[in-house]
Design brief:
N-utilizing Substance Protein B Homolog, Chain A; four-stranded antiparallel β-sheet; eight-stranded mixed β-sheet; 4 domains; Alpha-Beta Plaits
Length: 453
């Protein structure tokens, strides 16, 4: 007898299998499955919630499996393990899902992807956890703060220990909480095609709830977004999906119409298109990336937004292009990084990174920054940004670069920032943003000026 399973839950299971067992990127795997089937918007939202939610809370969920299961996680089949994870996520973290539905649908999936004993096991574990939902056996905070926070907020223990040493308990707990929040869907108005007021009218007319961004005039928050590719305003190039912290990078770069700007690590193109927009589509923006498949994303954004001045090239940012040395007005290095500032958007970062990654990434950042600095004209501007909160990748990296490159100095960015973000460090030439403090993605942005000879 064929088991009739719930299609959205089965799709979420396949996506989680791809991510957890095959190392797929969450956003790429999710898009592949969602675009491959015709799902109603409510089902798309449900699948997305289960995938990102289960990834986000994986550490806590696995801890609970170990507590409530007679079988060790390592001995479970990957399919049964991911079915259990999904079921526990629905029971503990999704208020609107009845426990009976979470259990019954998980049992059906276990029957299809396992055997009779698997389904009984899944049923027993889920129902035991459901009965203990209000009194889950978390570690004792007073005995081991790091372990408690790690389990309570589902972050790797090494990461929590690192942040406790740097930030202290109160800040760290706030950061962990913020990393588990659902990030708001923020877009940048393409004012070359439409005014902000016209876009608001268009979106609200299509049934979307819209409010102004937190800091920037060109930012809008869509409170009930649907599949972005199916939104008429998106297809017409009236907006670009982009968090405000990312928008601030182009603001700090402050490009002028007619200039030549180089974005050395530009995919998927949010910052390059913003730069071209600020330049009123006049001048040249050379938009480069090492990955050919990512270059296509920049091309699509360029065409959709109508930004002809963007010149797209496949190029390795760590390799010097002698043709551009000393010829560029403004250079942006949006460097590869650990990504710890955007965990709320990409929860799999928590599980795909480790302590050793940082040293390797810092070395690459150093090489890219040094190479990119060669392109800056005398008197030109160099901006370095990351989407992380690690000092070794941020202020320490910039301070090391400036101390070894006397042609460059950090430049006050206070006047380039919204008034409410003018932190003390802005006068020193950089700003560090945190999701728990600033309500936007964790980003670092520094601006340097090359001395005129």
């Amino acid at each position: 007898m064929r088991i009739k399973v719930d299609k959205p839950r089965e799709t979420a299971l396949k996506i989680l299998y791809d991510i957890n067992e095959k190392g797929a990127y969450s956003n790429i795997s999710l898009n592949k499955y969602l675009n491959g089937f015709e799902f109603e918007s409510v089902d798309r939202a449900f699948i997305t919630d289960i995938v990102y939610g289960t990834l986000k809370w994986k550490y806590t969920i696995d801890y609970l499996i170990e507590k409530f299961s007679s079988i060790k996680i390592k001995k479970l089949s990957p399919w049964i393990l991911n079915i259990l994870r999904m079921g526990i996520y629905q029971i503990i973290y999704m208020d609107r899902i009845p426990v009976s539905a979470a259990c019954n649908e998980s049992v059906k999936l276990a029957t299809k992807y396992g055997h009779a004993a698997s389904s009984k096991y899944v049923n027993a574990v889920l129902r035991n956890i459901a009965r203990s939902k209000e009194n889950l056996p978390y570690p004792d905070k007073n005995k081991d703060t790091a372990h408690y926070l790690s389990i309570k907020y589902s972050h790797p223990l090494w990461m929590v220990k690192d942040w406790l040493l740097r930030f202290g308990e109160e800040f760290t707990e706030g950061l962990l909480k913020a990393n588990n929040d659902v990030a708001r869907f923020t877009v940048r108005v393409n004012d070359l095609k439409i005014s902000k007021e016209e876009l608001i009218d268009m979106l609200t007319g299509d049934g979307f709830e819209v409010e102004n961004g937190k800091y920037l005039d060109e930012a809008l928050i869509i409170k009930n977004p649907s599949a972005v590719q199916k939104m008429g305003a998106f297809a017409k190039g009236y907006f670009q999906v982009q968090d405000e912290s990312s928008m601030l990078v182009a603001k700090v770069l402050d490009p002028k119409p007619g200039e030549t700007v180089l974005d050395v690590c530009s995919a998927p193109g949010g910052k390059s298109t913003h730069i071209a927009q600020i330049m009123k589509n006049r001048g040249t923006v050379i938009s480069r990336d090492i990955h050919e498949h990512k270059i296509k994303l920049i091309e699509q954004a360029k065409e959709r937004l109508g930004l002809e001045i963007i010149k797209i090239e496949v190029f390795d940012a760590a390799v010097l292009d002698s043709n551009l040395v000393g010829k560029i007005d403004r250079v942006l290095v949006d460097a590869p990084c650990t990504g710890f500032g955007i965990i709320r958007r990409k929860p799999d970062i928590k599980w795909s990174r480790n302590l050793e990654d940082k040293a390797e990434i810092v070395s690459l950042q150093e090489k890219i920054l040094s190479t990119a600095s060669e392109y800056v004209k005398d008197g030109g501007v160099l901006v370095y940004s990351t989407c992380t909160i690690e000092p070794e990748e941020n202020e320490k990296a910039v301070e090391k670069f400036v101390s070894g490159n006397k042609d460059f100095y950090l430049e006050d960015i206070t006047d380039l920032l919204p008034e409410s973000l003018r932190k003390e460090s802005a006068s020193k030439g950089y700003i560090q943003l945190y999701p728990n403090i600033d309500g936007i993605d964790g980003f670092f942005i520094a601006r340097m000026r090359k001395r005129s000879r």
